[in-house]
Amino acid sequence: MFDNKKQAIKLRKFGLSYNVISKKLKVAKGTLSYWFKDLAVSDQIKKDNISKAKRKWADNLIAYNKGRSLKARQNWEDTQKVAEKQVKSVSDRELFLIGVALYWAEGYKKGNWNVIFCNADPGTNCVMMEFFRKICKVPEEKIKAQVQIHRNIEADGSIRYWSRLIKLPVSHFLKPMYQVSKASKFRRGNTLPYGTLRIKINDVLLVNKIKGWIRGLSKSAGYGSIG
Asked: What is the distance between the terminal CA atoms of the chain, rounded to a whole angstrom?
């Protein structure tokens, strides 16, 4: 025990903390406290030990938060998987309602000449193309597309991406529209790597038909007539 005490004091003078010495020598912290009660420790050692304790506390907090974050993400993923299975195949009626609702939310409704739908979400654009093709019976040659991108995005790559996704030939794409956003000028990253897709159909009858569908959907939902 005497040798342990000498070794403990020596280690303490080197600046090691109670925790380290206790683990190294297998001596209780209470015993160390008794041994060190008359030991003069320099202010620098005290500062170093405090700094080490703060770093350890910070590391533990980071590890704890990381663990919580991983667990939370897993819970989110599990919830989404369960919810995903609740959605079965979509009927034509359901696709009709989904398409009308999406156009109501994101489509261009001021004009009476063109159907224009603009969105950056790949899934949303795929659903709308299915709506236009299957429900609205739009001939393929009438569907045009245009990418809206920032200058730091390669136009051809963006067009190829959307062309493959919505199964529309590159020849149906109009000249890219470049956007300059003051808010994004100073951002290092880009949350829209392929820009926004603008789907355009020159069809007076269809645009007014969709507006009528929106009115009908509004009435059936109990909100009365709109527009």
From this structure: 90
Structure confidence by residue, pLDDT tens digits, 7-52 = 887 777 777 778 888 888 888 888 888 877 767 665 556 666 667 7
Q: CA nearest 172: which of 180, 161, 182, 163?
A: 163
Q: How many CB atoms within 10 Å of residue 210?
A: 23
Measure the CA–CA gap between 81 and 73, rounded to whole angstroms: 12
Q: Which of 134, 60, 67 has its CA nearest to residue 94? A: 134
If one counts every other C-beta atom within 10 angstroms of the C-beta of residue 82, the result is 9
Q: What are the residues whose beta carbons fall under 8 Å from the beta carbon of 103, sequence distance 6 or more?
A: 109, 115, 117, 128, 131, 210, 214
- DSSP-assigned states of every residue in 33-46: HHHTTT----HHHH
Angstrom distance (rounded) from CA 211 to CA 128 = 15
Domain spans in the chain, listed from the N-terminal domain onward: 2-81, 92-181+192-220
Measure the CA–CA gap between 19 and 164, rounded to whole angstroms: 61
The answer to whether residues 162 and 194 touch, using CB atoms and an 8 Å cutoff, is yes
Pick the CATH number of 92-181+192-220 from 2.60.40, 3.30.10, 3.30.1330, 3.40.462: 3.30.1330
Q: Residue 108 corresponds to which tokens in the numbers above?
A: 């261009």
**Average model confidence (pLDDT) across the chain:** 86
